[in-house]
Amino acid sequence: MLRSVRTVTLLGVAVQFAAFARTAIIAASLGASLDVDAYNIGLIAPTFVSTVIGSWVQVSFVGRYTSLVTLGDERLAAAYRTRMLAIVLTLAAIFASLCFLLPQTILALFMPGIAPGLLATSVDALQVAGWTMLPIILADFIGLILNCHGRFLAAAMAPLFNALVSVAALLLWPTSGLSSLVWTLLLGSVAQLLVVSAALLQLKLRYPIDTRAAKGEVRRTLVLALPLLPAVMLSNAMAPMIQFRAAELGEGAVAVFGYAMRLHWALMQVLVMGLGTVLLPHFAALVSRNEKDEIVSLLRRLARVGMLVTLCLSAVIILMGNAIVDTLLGRGAFDSALGIQVAQIWAVLSLSLFPFAFGTFIAKLGQAMRQVSIILATSVASFLATLIMTKVGGFAHDLVVICIAPTAAVTAATCIWLIWLNRKFYARPVLADIAAAALRSIVVLVIPVFLDIGLRPLLGDLPGMIALGLRGIAFVAVVGALLWGLGWQRWFLAAQFARSERLPATASAAE
């Protein structure tokens, strides 16, 4: 498992570097212009639909398909994946066609008060961007099949090809504008599909014409969509709601949020993507073998390390965010004033790192167990928290307040996940580890934070990138030295626990 996590994480980091290159090109050439606002708004519907379908398939398909593969029932597994592939392809084609045929209706449905100029430009963006759903949804489904067969490398390589192709195409495109943004994005998504398709062909899996054997399995998968689709729609409504509300604040607000969210999402992907991709089939296997002790031990380790890493990252973003933004994006049309705005929003978004990461890890367990009711409950909590904070921010006409919504949403959802975990697996040791890890992490961070505050004026005469590098090295070195000096690195990384800390025999069995 650890080897797979390292592979997926390293490739995920490479994807984020490539994506940053694309973001930097957009920032330098277009800044916070109308085209960038329209590009972000035009991507809302395709991204939302792709995420909803992908989340549904993860929960309803992966757990059962992994069990069939693990148990060696190849005949049923072949029929099941073939039927599901046809369903996913049909859904992708339908939604892509709707975005092409009815773009203005779709945008007006969610943004009735959008300015006419922004609406017209966003319609153009949506008509092209909508077609990205076809290759992306299909590529994501094929990637899940590859993961279930242990081919994590190929599934993780595909988004990297997507990013590299879209960056290269954007660099070579003759003019900078909305057309270049959406068409290069479509080219990248096609490249992603080609990579996973080639890897799938190498598996030499069967796709029988007669799939009646999987009729019952597919029916159960579709029935799960009744409570699950509303759940994933609500849980993934956060970013669109913020973008819609930001659009009401005037030109450039959507772009500012988009740049900050790009930085924030890169960190979340690096933190969660590698583990999350591997955890879902791993949890499915542990649940099938009823290894409750191993599940709780793994979650405890994730809680300890996750708290330390996310608090360190939040501290770095708050202290050095402005310098990082200037280094990564500060050129061309992206001026210092825009950089300050983006850094401020990024710092606010960073507060959601731990609840998002750890909540996602527990959610993978819930998905492996196909616990639809708790998934729906967490989604409702997330949606309500987002709705309240975006309305408060809209009333205050303040983008910073609006951007508190992600932290409120993921915190509410994670609290519910922890309650569920305690009922199913006895989560008190996990809660104790979260509290202890937070306290130890804060103690470790005090000296590095004050050291960075003192170093900042002393390095003011150096070039920005060199000064930032020295500050980052000093911060990491002091944190590492304190952990080593206190001997706490062993506690954070502990994989084995005393017998008295293990799951009590009276704990509820996983259902």
Characterise the protein shown here.
By secondary structure, the chain is mainly α. Helix content is 83%, strand content 0%. Residues 502-511 have low confidence and may be disordered. It has helices at 2-30, 34-42, 44-71, 74-101, 103-110, 116-129, 133-148, 152-172, 178-203, 215-235, 238-247, 253-288, 292-329, 336-349, 353-368, 372-396, 399-402, 405-425, 428-458, 464-486, 489-493. α11 (238-247) runs parallel beside α16 (372-396), α13 packs parallel to α19 (428-458) and α15 packs across α18 (405-425). The longest helix is centred in the middle third of the chain and has 38 residues, at 292-329.
SSE order, as H and E? Answer: HHHHHHHHHHHHHHHHHHHHH
Label the structural class: mainly alpha
Strand content: under 5%
Question: Average pLDDT value?
Answer: 85
Alpha carbon gyration radius: 23 Å
Span of the ends, CA to CA: 24 Å
What is the 3D form? Answer: globular
Number of beta-strand segments: 0
Helix content: over 70%
Keywords:
511 residues; mainly alpha
List the SSEs and their pairings.
Blueprint: H1 2-30, H2 34-42, H3 44-71, H4 74-101, H5 103-110, H6 116-129, H7 133-148, H8 152-172, H9 178-203, H10 215-235, H11 238-247, H12 253-288, H13 292-329, H14 336-349, H15 353-368, H16 372-396, H17 399-402, H18 405-425, H19 428-458, H20 464-486, H21 489-493
